Amino acid sequence: MQLTQRQLRELIQRPSSFLRRHHISLRLCTEPLRSTTRQVFGSWDPLLREIGLYQVPDRSAEQVVNTLLHETFHALTGVRDEDVVDTLAGEALQLLSEHEIHTCAAHLRQLTPPSSPRTDISRAQHQDSTISIGAFA
Ligand SMILES: [Zn+2]
Q: Residue 95: which residues within 8 A CB-CB, separation 6 or more?
């Protein structure tokens, strides 16, 4: 399932309200989500219906938007296969201009509360490591 152009534009321009309409909340954090073995930049928790984006201020605009797309595809499609989700996110990213990507990332950075570590790592059901987001990690 790919997003329509209109859905993609809505997600990029107003991520929180787009996701809220799909009953998904968005948690934005300054810090990476660390486990003992890896560093996590995105998560989707199907029980809480929460997408988490981590280390938002420190990553490039393209990385942040790619992770937002990646987690949104997990959330909307229920697909857990990383390759499938990476492909969908990559295709969606290709449809966006540099300007749209930078505007979206700037908006997400602005929404990120200062000093917002996340320590309750065990609650996030699905965590995407540097490895699973491939080229943009
Ligand atoms: Zn994933």
A: 5, 8
What phi, psi does 97 have (nearest 5°)?
A: -80, 160
CB-based neighbours (< 5 A) of ligand 1, an ion: 82, 128
110 CA from centroid of ligand 1 (Å):
24
pLDDT for 121 equals 52
Domains in the chain (CATH in brackets) are 5-131 (3.30.2010)
Q: What is the pTM of this model?
A: 0.84
Q: What is the pLDDT of residues 38-76, one digit of tens each?
A: 778 999 999 999 999 999 999 999 999 999 999 999 999
Question: Ligand 1 centre from 127 Cα, in Å?
Answer: 7
Residues 6+ apart with CB under 8 A from 124: 33, 40, 43, 44, 45, 52
Measured between alpha carbons, how far is 119 from 116 in angstroms, rounded to an integer? 10
Q: State in Å: Cα 43 to ligand 1 middle.
A: 7
Cα atoms in the Cβ-side hemisphere of radius 13 Å centred on 65: 27
Q: Give the per-residue pLDDT at 124.
A: 52
